[in-house]
Amino acid sequence: MNQPQFEQQAQYSNQVQVNPAVPGKGLATASMILGIVSLVLFFSTFIAIVCAITGLSLGAVSKGLGFKSGKSTAGIVCSAVAIVVSAFFFVLIMAMGAVASIPY
Question: I want to staple 75 with a disulfide (CB 3.0 to 4.6 A). Which of 21, 35, 41, 43 is the partner?
Fold first, then answer.
């Protein structure tokens, strides 16, 4: 008896394809996180301004490395807004302290 001849099946390799690292992706994520944290902590002006300046610089560096994504843009925008809001809150607190110290 002749047995039917089957074609050989395609051989599959067990190699895993790894995506290449994108420069600036981690910096963009850190920028976005720091921008959001600085927005949440605007009432603690020192911490918020430090986080916002760090987030702003990381977002700018990630864009400079060529990572054009919404994460880096969100980090830059959130950080800039947090700087403005924190500075306004700081001025407001100082003005309230000055008004409270005026003798009547």
Answer: 35
What is the C-alpha to C-alpha distance for residues 63 and 44, in angstroms, rounded to an integer? 28
Q: Look up the pTM and report it.
A: 0.74
- Residues 38 and 13: their CA atoms lie apart, in Å, by 48
Find tokens 């986080």 and name the residue: 51
Tokens for 67? 């990572």
Taking only the tens place, the pLDDT of each residue in 41-81 is: 988 889 999 999 999 999 999 999 988 889 999 999 999 99
Q: How far is 67 from 27, CA to CA, in rounded Å?
A: 9
The candidate with the shortest Cα–Cα distance to 53, out of 24, 31, 69, is 31
Residue 33 to residue 27: CA distance in whole angstroms: 10
